[in-house]
Each structure stands twice: as C-alpha cells, then as structure tokens.
Specification:
single chain, eight-stranded parallel β-sheet
Length: 392
C-alpha cells in the first residue's frame, strides 16, 4: 500500500509539472499581446519592483558566460578587510535600493546632454559576487576570478572589445582584484585615479603585529598592486590620489615619502580652497591624459561626514557632494576601463540614506562619462581619415 501511494504522488507531480510547463505560444499570445502587457505592467516606480541598479535588466552573469553587455554593474559585498567599522558588505544592496529613482525612462543627464541608459551601450546589473566572509584569502581569489570572468564577456556595440565593469563595494580592498582582472583582460598595467581621504598605499608592516603581518587590507591594496606591477606608474605618468586629508603615521612624512616612491601624485582635500574644482580637474587631466586606460576608484569617505556619514573610516574636512560631482563631470574625457564606488556602510548613515544616495549619484555620473566618451570614440571611427578626404 505504501509503495502504491508513493507511485501515485510521483504521477501527480509529473502531471502538475507538465501543466505548468505549458507555453504561452500554444495559448495564442502574439507579439502584440505581449507588447500590450509590457505597456500595462512593465513600468516600476522608485519604490516598487526588485532592486537592481537604476531598474536595469538583471542577469547573474557569473552563471551565464554567454550574456553580452558593454557595461556591467556588479556588487562585491565584502568588508572583512576593514580596519575600523565593518558594514560595507551591505553597501551594494543599499546603493541599488536608492538608485530606484533612476531609470532609462527618466535618466537624461542635462549636463552631458545624453541619457546613459538609452544610448549606444547595453548596461545590465550582473548581481553580486558571492564572497565568503570567513576567509580573506579565499575572498580575494573569488573577487579576482569573478572580475576576470566578467571582463572576458563579449560586448554588444563594438565600441570596445572588452566590457567595462563598475563595481559596488564593499570595502576598498576589492580594487586589488579589479586591477588584477584588468591587467589580464587588457594585457597591460593601468593608471589609477583614486578619490579618498586616505592614501591606501601603506606598507602592511606599518601596522606591526606579534602574530604576523596581514597584507590584504583596505589600506594596503594599492601598495600590493604596485608590488605586483599592476600600476602604470612612472615619474611622468603617475597615478593620482585626490581628496586626501587623513593623519599619517609616526612623527614625520614617511607615509607620503613611501607613496611618492610608488609614483603617485597627491592632491589634498583643502587644495580645492585654493584652486577650485576646475583646478583639481586640470591637475588630474594633466597627469592622466585622455588616451591611457584608467581605473577610477571612489571611496565615499572622500566626502565630508556631513554628506556621507555612512562609511567605515570617516574623516572631517572632506569635499561636498556637489564638489565631487563637479570634478567627476569635468573628467568625462578620461579613458575609463573600469571603476568602483566603495566603503558605503549603511549601518552608520542617517534615516535619509544620504550616503547611499551620494554613491548612487556617483555611479550615474561615471556611467554618463563612460557613455559620452564612447560616443566620441564612435565619432572618430566614423569620421573620414585624411586619405579618405583626398579620395572624396
């Protein structure tokens, strides 16, 4: 009797599965019918729907290597390399949540004259890298392999042979896996533009311990990148820090001296009082140019805690949101091959979610700049060469 009941349940399950697998095409749904359904029910408001960045299409790209895109948003919910306050593992989720106010329908950027979500690029949200919180060595390898895999996906537009990845952090140590991935995908070292209150080029032994030295932290990842030859740093083409204002170790300038030995240009936060946002922009462009590939990393603590309290290591005296956005808008000619926005730690922000909103706006500005630069590259490809003009 027992075996009979089991067989009956199996048969009922099979019948149910067959019924649920019935296709809409067999029911007579036409393309026009589906278009009408999309018109009726396809729109989400800022407070509805499943949270993806800017209501973008979502695909778990790490499970779908055939997915094509020009620019991907990817989360790295990892924060076990911080030195003070944890919580940035919740950053990607918080940034996506407040980005619901953005959409392709209402995404036109007046300063740039384009809607980044309705231009040449296919932009999708690839979801999060499943990063372990239990082992930093494994986490480092997971992020590195994931970003390498995503960087090998095929593009749609043909503007670039490799897609651009914009990573939502997570703590700042994820920049090291990103640079490792970029070096392999592009087969060359990369210059870095680094917005931060802190240097993040500290030698790991700056924090000595009886128990041994921890190398992979959110303050040593650019030191590690330099040691691994991942940075295109030279005396004539250094990488750039901007927004610096943290305390240094010891009783002198040793931290700055070691940073200079790694060929970084340092722009203090208070320099903006002397030369303004345009002066900051000119210094950055003077060092990076507009042709060399650049990785742009924004630690949200570059902003003053009045504008971004929700971060792990806040430092008073930073820039306002408006100042940072103005600087980013002035850098749209940079040849960005990737970027990150990191150190958003929602447990420490206020009810108004100002830190997350600032981060989501930064992502929007970076996407806009990537799209506008791509339009210029397309125009160059389509414009006739001098030889072509002679033939005309």
């Amino acid at each position: 009797m027992k075996s009979y009941r089991v067989l009956t349940l199996i048969l009922l399950g099979a019948t149910s599965f067959a019924c649920t697998g019935h296709s809409h095409e067999a029911e007579g749904w036409t393309k026009e019918d589906l278009a009408e359904l999309e018109a009726k029910w396809g729109q989400n408001y800022a407070f509805s729907g499943i949270s993806t960045f800017a209501n973008l299409e979502h695909t778990r790209c790490l499970l779908n290597p055939r997915e094509t895109f020009d620019i991907a948003i990817v989360g790295a919910p990892y924060d076990t390399s911080v030195g003070y306050r944890p919580g940035a593992r919740f950053g990607p989720r918080a940034i996506r949540h407040v980005s619901g106010r953005q959409s392709s329908f209402r995404g036109f950027n007046p300063r740039a004259g384009i809607n980044p979500y309705q231009s040449w690029a296919k932009i999708i949200d690839c979801g999060d890298i499943p990063v372990t919180p239990f082992d930093n060595v494994i986490a480092q390898e997971q992020m590195t392999q994931a970003l390498k895999q995503l960087g090998r996906h095929q593009t749609v537009s043909g503007v670039s042979s490799r897609p651009k990845l914009l990573t939502l952090g997570g703590d700042h140590s994820l920049s090291l896996p990103a640079l490792r991935a970029l070096n392999e995908v592009h087969d060359r070292p990369i210059q870095v533009l680094h917005f931060d209150a802190h240097l993040d080029t500290w030698h790991p032994e700056a924090y000595p311990s009886y128990w041994g030295t921890t190398h992979f932290t959110h303050g040593s990842m650019f030191w590690m990148a330099y040691q691994e030859g991942l940075l295109c740093n030279s005396s004539s083409r250094p990488s750039v820090h901007a927004g610096l204002r943290s305390r240094l170790g010891g009783t002198g300038w040793k931290d700055n001296d070691e940073d200079a030995a790694q060929n970084w240009l340092r722009i203090p936060a208070d320099e903006i009082d002397n030369i303004g946002t345009r002066g900051i922009i000119n210094q950055i462009l003077g060092m990076l140019g507009t042709e060399q590939p650049v990785y742009l990393s924004v630690d949200i603590d570059v902003l003053d805690p009045a504008f971004a309290p929700g971060t792990g290591t806040p430092e008073p005296g930073g820039w306002s949101s408006r100042e940072l956005i103005s600087i980013l808008r002035g850098l749209e000619d940079l040849n960005l091959v990737g970027a990150d926005v990191v150190e958003v730690s929602p447990p420490y922000q206020n009810r108004g979610e100002e830190t997350s909103f600032a981060a989501a706006q930064v992502v929007y500005e970076l996407l806009t700049s990537m799209i506008k630069r791509g339009l210029k590259d397309l125009a160059k490809e389509k414009s006739p060469t001098s030889d072509d003009k002679d033939e005309l």
